[in-house]
Amino acid sequence: MSILTLSNVFQETQYQAVTLANFEKFSQIQRLPEELIKDIRVVGSVLPFKTNTYVINRLIDWSNVPDDPIFTLTFPRRGMLTPEHYLRMEKLIDSGADPRLLRQTADEIRLSLNPHPDGQMRHNLPVHRGQKIRGMQHKYHETILFFPSQGQTCHAYCTFCFRWAQFVGIEGLKFATQEAQLLKSYLLEHPEITDVLFTGGDPMVIKTEILAAYFNVLLDKELPRLRTIRIGTKALTYWPQRFVTDSDAKGLLALFEKTAASGKQLAVMAHFNHYVELSTPEARAAIRAIRKTGAQILTQSPVMKHINDKASVWARMWRRQYRLGCIPYYMFVARDTGAQRYFEVPLARAWEIFRKAYSKVSGVARTVRGPSMSATPGKVQVLGVTQAGQETVFALNFIQARNPDWVGRPFFAKFDPQAVWLDDLKPAFGDKEFFYQKELDELLAADRAHVPPVPIDNRF
Ligand SMILES: *Cc1c(COP(=O)(O)O)cnc(C)c1O
Ligand code: SF4
Question: What domains lie within the chain, and their CATH numbers?
Answer without folding.
Answer: 13-111 (no CATH), 117-448 (3.20.20.70)
